[in-house]
Give the backbone structure.
Amino acid sequence: MSGNDDLRLKLSKEAANGPLEDARGEYAEARAEMVEKQLRRRGINDARLLQAMNAVPRHEFVPAEFRSRAYDDAPVPIGEGQTISQPYIVAAMTAVLRLTGNERALEIGAGSGYQAAILASLAREVFTIESRPELATSAAQRLARLCYANVHVHCGDGTMGLPEFAPFDAILVAAASPSTPEPLLAQLADGGRMVIPVGTVENQELQLLERVHDKIRVTALEPCRFVPLVGAHGWKESPPR
């Protein structure tokens, strides 16, 4: 598979009806408890975001052996040394983007596809990049099976973004970079918002960047801990832990 190949699968006619939900499934109670205790009680109050977090079946985005941990207040391994972020971090990063439903969004670090599914529930169109071919392929297959037809999965260097589809109204970076990659800043639309963890392996800070014409306003949000963002404009290789 070549870099930045669009891995989105052709959906069946049934899939075109929209994302599948698990409102009355076996995990519905766990998901509702996650929303109430982990999100709402911590200050996440965006009604559309809470609805999305309550609708997207998080257990479908983790390996079968970890499904019992899918709704825990913690990250969960998804293979190849990567994790799916804890629900609060997913919600907190999404919340600061202030999505209204009309945006074109870019995600860096598709992983299992869960964050992309949340974004797809809130934005018009989502592009997501994963550098690991196996994860990119499985994420594309999973998102197609769950009927997220407005997500496009690419495989390649996330620090380069996707200039051929820019500009983006919202960019979410799901891995920590030593500094904000310049190509991503260049692809942020005027009035757009980017959320990214910046720092060392041990000391990271979640930042919000907002473009107003030619100026970038940076707001420090909270301490965080993400896997390293590896690429031409990130870590050149995974730093030692």
Observations:
- Confidence is low (pLDDT under 50) at residues 1-17.
